[in-house]
Amino acid sequence: MPSSAMPAPRRSPGPQAPAAVTAVGLRKSYGDKTVLDGVDLSIPAGTVFALLGPNGAGKTTVVKILSTLIKPDGGQARVAGHDIAAAPDGVRAAIGVTGQFSAVDGLITGEENMRLMADLHHLSRQEGRRVTAELLERFDLAEAAGKPASTYSGGMRRRLDIAMTLVGNPRIIFLDEPTTGLDPRSRHAMWQVVRELVAGGVTVLLTTQYLEEADELADRIAVLHGGRIVADGTADELKRLIPGGYVRLRFSDAAAHRSAAAVLADAVRDDEALALRIPNDGSQRELRAILDRLDAAGIEADELTVHTPDLDDVFFALTGGSTPPNQPEEAVR
């Protein structure tokens, strides 16, 4: 279980923030297999929204529908103010998409891949060269820029793929499991890129096989299971949905420890560590109640930590024990 004295700070888009992406009642089936069964989404501009679910849950299908690659069987969606059915060209002009599988052409160099993308975005030759050089440097690919992409490692190809997504300076980016195949250092570097993008006002819809990644990056997280969104909230809100959280108080004085145990009757004592463990959901209200009881008795703890279930626990609880995502979804699903 992770522990922390204070919850990690999260960005707040504010109540007036416009929605960059909305979806109501999205449905999609393949034959007799229902993949999406009425999915609703609302993603505020300038935030990271993570979509979690078991393999085959339909995360990639959501991305493909919102990016106009496939049509839904039912429901409506708007991306950057454009209806995905009525104005697909407007949607495509506003977004960037990095899919599960690399779009890099291995027969040409990294730099040529970037320039090709610049040409597709109708950038001038000078602007295309500038953007290409900037992104290759940003993704630590400048030294390998003149080598065929087929010689790149998996992580390098992934970084090039994402760099190509950014050539058109999209305001909304769909990242479908973007760090799959990256080593931990590269993954953390990618997280920093996402943070920088969002700090600049970009909206990111992220599907990921790493629960830690969603916890680290996302302002809000939705869990997709059985074709429906079964939970939606901040990481801290989701962690409070399931039991298992507690507050741990530690004392340096044995007398204070005994007194606190008497005041907090529901606490589990650890006499050797001079600690108490109190079942708690980590909410501000419940924390204040514990501290008020200690203050009223004139007792002061030396250390207070909040332990909450992690996203692995949340995932198992919400998906009925399904295996957490650990590999890319099938291409169509």
In words, what does this structure look like?
It is a single chain. The N terminus and C terminus are likely disordered. The strands form 3 sheets. This protein has a 6-stranded mixed sheet, sandwiched between helices. Strands 1-15-12-14-13 form a 5-stranded antiparallel sheet, with helices on one face. The protein has a 4-stranded antiparallel sheet with strand order 3-2-5-6, with helices on one face. It is α/β, with parallel strands linked by helices. It has 11 helices and 15 strands. The chain is elongated and about 75 Å long.
Structural class: alpha/beta
What is the CATH architecture term of the largest domain? 3-Layer(aba) Sandwich
Counting DSSP E segments of at least 2 residues, the number of strands comes to 15
The poorly predicted ranges are 1-10, 325-333
- Provide the number of structural domains: 2
Helix content: 25-40%
Overall outline: elongated
